[in-house]
Amino acid sequence: MPKKKIALAVAGLALLGISQIIPITSLSASVPAPVTNPAALVDSPRQEVMAWINEQAKDPVTTDSFQFQTVNLDDDDNMEIIAKHNGAVHIGSFYVLDRQADGSYKLIAEESWNVPRFQLDRWDPTRYEDNSEWNSQSVQELGRVAGKRLFETINRTGGSGVDILEAHLWYLQDGKLVEAWSGTLQGTSSIPGGQLIQIAGSYQLVGADTEHPQLYTWQTTQELDPDTGLPLSKKAETTTEILSWNNGAFQKTSQK
Ligand SMILES: [Ca+2]
Ligand SMILES: [Ca+2]
């Protein structure tokens, strides 16, 4: 029964053409249904999605911090599912599931990203939150870069003395997750010997809707006083790169 229920819910979403991120749980909760146990109704899609993942994943979901959303990621009208779980410090997984003809979901991507939150379209400043006339493009066209619908996912990674927020820009192609770029947004790193280094970085996409999109990236590193956390000197170093879209990813422009 739960399998049928979620398949119907997702098929319903596709029919309605709702392509914004909508949790299945809230959808189920808003549909009056003759059930005697409402808690079971709300929880079943979550259990179902987790079961699909755990049947197929290399690293299954092992914690309670599991979340998922339905979102239209590719060119078909069916909703795809993104999911994540966060384990111990800096450990987590990010999953993408694609709907199959029988209504079940196949795990098509699994990344060892510890994702604080889903904000797939964070990089795209052209998108408004409502469906007003400000959105002159259809949702399917938003966030498109060189013909691909590009998404951003943050990985909070690190290890002993290292804490890094890393951005991944990716898209789906032929049922696979393809990474177009990744880089550091922020981080601190303790170096043996007592040094503390701070990193701050970012990126901007320009010409996203043209044939030749470019990615401007920059990164500043600065040594901090390990006791006060304040910059030790004015010796901040900044590197910048301008990357061009080449073979489905942002790469350094070759010098001619
Ligand atoms: Ca789709
Ligand atoms: Ca699909």
TrEMBL record:
Protein name: Uncharacterized protein
